TrEMBL record:
<comment type="similarity">
    <text>Belongs to the oxygen-dependent FAD-linked oxidoreductase family.</text>
</comment>
<feature type="region of interest" description="Disordered">
    <location>
        <begin position="1"/>
        <end position="22"/>
    </location>
</feature>
<dbReference type="InterPro" id="IPR055154">
    <property type="entry name" value="GULLO2-like_C"/>
</dbReference>
<dbReference type="InterPro" id="IPR010031">
    <property type="entry name" value="FAD_lactone_oxidase-like"/>
</dbReference>
<dbReference type="Pfam" id="PF04030">
    <property type="entry name" value="ALO"/>
</dbReference>
<dbReference type="InterPro" id="IPR007173">
    <property type="entry name" value="ALO_C"/>
</dbReference>
<dbReference type="Pfam" id="PF22906">
    <property type="entry name" value="GULLO2-like_3rd"/>
</dbReference>
<comment type="pathway">
    <text>Cofactor biosynthesis; L-ascorbate biosynthesis.</text>
</comment>
<dbReference type="InterPro" id="IPR016167">
    <property type="entry name" value="FAD-bd_PCMH_sub1"/>
</dbReference>
<dbReference type="InterPro" id="IPR016169">
    <property type="entry name" value="FAD-bd_PCMH_sub2"/>
</dbReference>
<dbReference type="InterPro" id="IPR006094">
    <property type="entry name" value="Oxid_FAD_bind_N"/>
</dbReference>
<feature type="domain" description="FAD-binding PCMH-type">
    <location>
        <begin position="60"/>
        <end position="239"/>
    </location>
</feature>
<feature type="compositionally biased region" description="Basic residues">
    <location>
        <begin position="1"/>
        <end position="11"/>
    </location>
</feature>
<dbReference type="GO" id="GO:0003885">
    <property type="term" value="F:D-arabinono-1,4-lactone oxidase activity"/>
</dbReference>
<keyword id="KW-0560">Oxidoreductase</keyword>
<dbReference type="GO" id="GO:0016020">
    <property type="term" value="C:membrane"/>
</dbReference>
<dbReference type="InterPro" id="IPR036318">
    <property type="entry name" value="FAD-bd_PCMH-like_sf"/>
</dbReference>
């Protein structure tokens, strides 16, 4: 079956098919590696920080005066003290794999602290079954190290190329409601933070939190506004194995108590729902003893290196559908795509790189997360020293004597065959997308699913847009004690969809995605994932977050001058205003990018036939819907000429 899968990929890439999906691999033979661009870039006039797609939700840059790269807790202390002494805004940046502007210092004169080189500590305590690690340690390195001691972190996000501090600070998660649940921040039992302080204390101080400290519930998931995390301590478990199988089922099994029964019946279960086909791909995943037979792994294709030509063919396929205003080809391919994912293992392998059948059984750290595209193993990073600037004016310094290091990006190899990450923003026709992830209480899940089905039945073809990126991904979360996390057992709905390079270009079936967002957020009290989502999803978050007052009390004590906060975190936490409009920007075409929920036609694009209208299933929604004029002189939408 794996051979058949590879042949299918080869045929489609040769044909330049527009029907490729994220469930299929696309390796180029003997290809060179195209590295991801650096998250932080500096020149003589200052620095910028970018997210993994290089473009923030509002498409405005994040600027700072300096970027500093501490390699130890002592150096991190010096940087925080510098910010405190000079009154500078400061933000800590890990992999910057979040969509929203959590890592942007306020204004252009702030400081950026990179944890890229704060990664030398991984201390395993066998008696307490804990590990303490530096903030910048990568998840992939942590879980491999733990396995050497026969230990494991039970849950993690599916992408292993994140720093551990960034992972917990944004609420990144896996799937599961058993025990402590699927969120790594709920396994944090200790933390050391460096926070601003008075001159008598050296302008900074260390706060050492343990599990019995109530303030740890703020620090576990902090959005980076409490201070700079130095070390994190996780509670571990003895190594175990997972067993995983993929099953195609009718989506009627999501109705009633079906979704709850599945979540409670499988410790690591998750679902990819294809609404147009009325089917779902259930990942049945359970714990097994470490001695169970099997050496399987999870090598998710879209997180491994992909051929640049393959990535571009995917983008061209989406652009062709947008330009033709037809999803008929995608609809025809949806069931085939689902079956191919199931029959090929969809990244699950029994041994080596081979899939031979279900169940796939393997050690937890090999089955829980995936990646590979983000790191070039063959070439070590090239580093050059820079210095920490203690000059309050933040004037650019050119001498290179001191302790902090910055990474120099080498030029990509000159070759026609390249491999890289799916989202590499340096690819002209790369995969550029919106990413929505919203959780609701699982007690309301069946009603929300029924609402989305009603929307599907009113316009079935529009749902085929979801199939191209894997359908609606459903995962499960346990109730958490972290103040900014979900307080009840919850279900996370997640999906990706096309984003135009031109911010003023409407999307085909734009109203579908807007209505689903508003169904989940407004009708069912949903909470957006802190590190994903478009701006509109964060309206009135301070009233939808049960323990926000407790969190803000800790923030005030740890950082009374708000040096680690910015306009975005103030808005989503309701610090300076109680208005839900603070996170929205109302201007012409603002709804096209999710900067606002439309109130009038100009927020959509009436010149191209998109008007602000009520939702189809959820009438209180306000969405940008295309209305074909009787005789239209509207310009044709064109994408391929847009860089």
């Amino acid at each position: 079956m794996a051979t058949q899968h590879r042949r299918t990929i080869a045929r489609q890439r040769k044909e330049g098919s527009s029907r490729l999906s994220l469930g299929r691999a696309g390796h180029a033979a003997s290809a060179a590696y195209l590295p991801l661009p650096p998250t932080i870039q500096c020149n003589g006039s200052g620095c910028t920080v970018e997210n993994y797609q290089r473009i923030w939700a509002d498409r405005k840059p994040c600027k700072a005066a300096q970027a500093l790269y501490p390699t130890s807790e002592g150096e991190l202390f010096q940087v925080v003290a510098l910010a405190s002494r000079t009154g500078s805004k400061v933000k800590v940046v890990g992999s910057s794999h979040s969509y929203s502007k959590l890592v942007c210092p306020g204004g252009d004169d702030g400081l950026i602290i990179s944890t890229q080189h704060l990664n030398s500590l991984i201390h395993v305590n066998l008696s307490s079954l804990t590990v303490t690690a530096h903030a910048g340690v990568q998840l992939r390195d942590l879980i491999v190290r733990l396995a050497e001691f026969g230990l494991t972190l039970p849950h993690s996000p599916v992408w292993h190329g994140v720093s551990i501090a960034g992972m917990i600070s944004t609420g990144a998660h896996g799937s599961g409601m058993w025990h402590r649940g699927g969120s790594p921040h709920d396994y944090v039992v200790g933390m050391r933070l460096i926070v601003p302080a008075d001159e008598e204390e050296g302008f900074a101080k260390i706060i050492d939190l343990r599990e019995q400290d109530a303030d740890l519930n703020a620090a576990r998931l902090s959005l980076g506004v409490l201070g700079a995390i130095s070390q994190v301590t996780f509670q571990l478990e003895p190594m175990f194995k997972r067993s995983a199988s993929l099953e195609i089922r009718e989506d009627t099994q999501l109705d009633g108590d079906g979704i709850v029964d599945f979540a409670k019946g499988h410790e690591f279960g998750e679902i990819c729902w294809y609404p147009f086909s009325g089917k779902a791909l259930f990942k049945v995943s359970d714990r097994m003893d470490a001695g169970a037979v099997g050496d399987g792994a999870y090598n998710m294709a879209i997180l491994d290196r992909l051929g640049v030509d393959f990535i571009e063919s995917m983008r061209h396929g989406l652009e062709a559908a947008e330009e033709s205003r037809s999803l008929s080809e995608l609809c025809q391919e949806e069931k085939k795509t689902m079956k191919l994912r199931q029959s090929s293992g969809d990244g699950l392998v029994n041994f080596g790189n081979t899939f031979i059948g279900y169940p796939v059984v393997g050690l937890n750290h090999k089955m829980q997360t995936s990646g590979g595209c983000e790191k070039e193993e063959e070439l070590p990073p090239i580093v050059t020293p820079t210095r920490i600037d203690f000059n309050p004016s933040h004037e650019h310094q050119t001498d290179t004597e001191n302790d902090f290091v910055d990474q120099v990006v080498h030029s990509p190899p000159q070759t026609d065959k390249l491999e890289t990450c799916l989202w590499n923003p340096t690819i002209k026709y790369g995969f550029f997308f919106f990413h929505t992830a919203i959780s609701i209480p699982i007690s309301r899940a069946a009603d929300a699913i029924a609402e989305i089905k009603r929307l599907r039945d009113l316009n079935p073809e529009s749902m085929c847009s979801l199939a191209y990126s894997g359908g609606i991904w459903i995962r499960f979360l346990a109730a958490s004690e972290a103040y900014l996390a979900v307080p009840t057992e919850s279900i996370m709905f997640e999906f990706m969809y096309y984003r135009a390079r031109d911010p003023f270009t409407p999307r085909l079936h734009q109203d579908l995605f807007e209505e689903i967002e508003q169904i989940l957020v407004n009708k069912y009290g949903g909470k957006p994932h802190w590190g994903k989502n478009r701006n509109l999803a964060f309206g009135n978050m301070h009233t939808r977050t049960v323990h926000v007052a407790k969190f803000l009390d800790v923030r005030q004590r740890f950082d009374p001058s708000s040096l680690f906060s910015n306009e975005w975190t103030d808005a989503i936490l309701g610090i300076k205003s109680s208005s839900p409009q603070d996170v929205q920007t109302f201007q012409d075409h603002c709804a096209l990018e999710g900067l606002c929920v439309c109130k009038e036609d100009s927020h959509c694009h009436p010149a191209r036939g998109y008007f602000c209208r009520p939702g189809l299933a959820y009438k209180d929604a306000r969405v940008c819907r295309y209305e074909k004029p009787e005789s239209s002189n509207l310009p044709l939408l064109s994408f391929r000429g847009i860089a």
